[in-house]
Sequence to fold (308 residues):
Amino acid sequence: MKLLLYIPSKTADEWYAAFARALPGAELRAWAPGLDWQADYATFWYPPRDLLDGQKHLKAAFNLGAGVDGTLKALTPPPGVPLVRLEDAGMGRQMDEYVGWAVMRYFRRLDEYAAQQARSEWTIHRPRKHADFVVGMMGLGVLGARVAQAILPLGFPVRGWSGSAKSIEGIRTFAGAAELPAFLGGTQALVCMLPLSPDTKGLLNRTTLGQLPRGAYVINVARGGLVVDDDLLALLDQGHLAGTTLDVFHEEPLPASHRFWSHPKVFITPHCSALTLIEDSVAQVAGKIQRLERGEAVTGIVDLRRGY
Ligand code: NDP
Fold:
């Protein structure tokens, strides 16, 4: 079995070694421009446009991330070749931690206390009520559904929104464009866990974010392209939104001149809410290759028409 790899990262050697351990007997080859080599499988992250050109026997292509927006911008797999993405692969637990922390930081007003510390101010605020602090999860897929359930034990009412209707114990669910205003209207802390696709690009804009109640918070751990930055900043400046935590941006690294860096209501992290874990990811991809080799079905196949 022949596996083509393209991993543009400082950790490329670790990835290759992990694949060699997980698939003993497989022939591994790192992609390079002009390589003339027919592979059975390919695995990559942010591939160049011509990565899969000329591949005639490919059985599946594996994206080394949960989101495929970057991959689909560069290439479309050859007809009939499934594109398979990572499903959780150790990222879910990291997302639970990050989102739980971000929600709790706002609930306990730690953002306000940090600002007070900067001006040596000692002021105690009245506690909020859990029942009033509704957390709304946009996207109820592998990660969104998991994180929504991880929030529940913190005591907040949790609601979720997705494309198709879902039933998840303890979570009030909404689906489709028609139910988006109702979902947003009752959400105090909005968490975005949607894929970036032609349908979701710019979905968090003046209109939708304006439908959140005054004083709401926005936490984006999905992709920067979901947000219209100027609209988010305008709503923060107007006081409609109380704060935002952003892990992802249109351009990464976030340019030094961007207003997000210095805005007092913006908290930034450098796309680290959930990092790709080499061992977990390789185990998942290798396991799926082995299943395909046995003629079994695999999950995580991207719907190219929907873009996720
Ligand atoms: P999934 O594909 O499992 O879930 C996507 C969810 O979004 C589904 O519930 C889907 O609805 C919903 N959705 C998609 N399009 C729409 C739409 N137009 N309207 C309403 N709902 C929609 O993805 P994952 O949970 O695995 O990952 C989500 C995203 O998180 C990834 O695409 C990636 O961009 C991002 N991510 C970010 C990371 C980071 O480090 N910051 C790390 C990992 C992932 P339905 O259920 O009906 O299909």
